[in-house]
Design brief:
Strand order of the largest sheet: 2-1-3
Shape: globular
Number of strands: 5
Strand content: 15-25%
Distance between the termini: 25 Å
Structural class: alpha+beta
Helix content: 10-25%
Largest sheet: 3 strands, antiparallel
Length: about 110
């Protein structure tokens, strides 16, 4: 089971498969993340902004990322950033190993 995350509610729901449904609480789109994702507390708005930023860049919180400019199939495990400043530096060096497509708002 993977976490299906609602950025609007700042909640994570464990579900199977792809995000075919909206958030059960607010109807916003759900984002499917890697099973290793550990959601911040709902009250931690700063951490949720970081999660939202990384999702918008295509990261799904799997352990594998790809160094920009390297051949396909070469993955690395650098660890995810903990601050927005670190995140902005992180995306300059790394790209998702497999890019996710965030759902669109309807």
């Amino acid at each position: 089971m993977n976490p299906h995350v609602c950025l609007k509610c700042r909640k994570s729901f464990k579900r199977e498969g792809t995000p075919t449904e909206a958030c059960p609480e607010c109807s916003a789109p759900l984002h499917v993340l890697h099973h290793n994702f550990s959601p911040p507390k709902a009250s931690d708005k700063t951490s949720w902004k970081l999660v939202e930023f990384l999702i918008s860049q295509g990261f799904d919180f799997s352990g594998w990322v790809k160094k920009k400019g390297t051949p396909e199939g070469i993955g690395h495990r650098p660890g995810y950033p903990r601050t927005m400043l670190e995140a902005k530096e992180f995306i300059k060096l790394w790209e998702p190993f497999q890019k996710t497509t965030p759902p669109t708002e309807s």
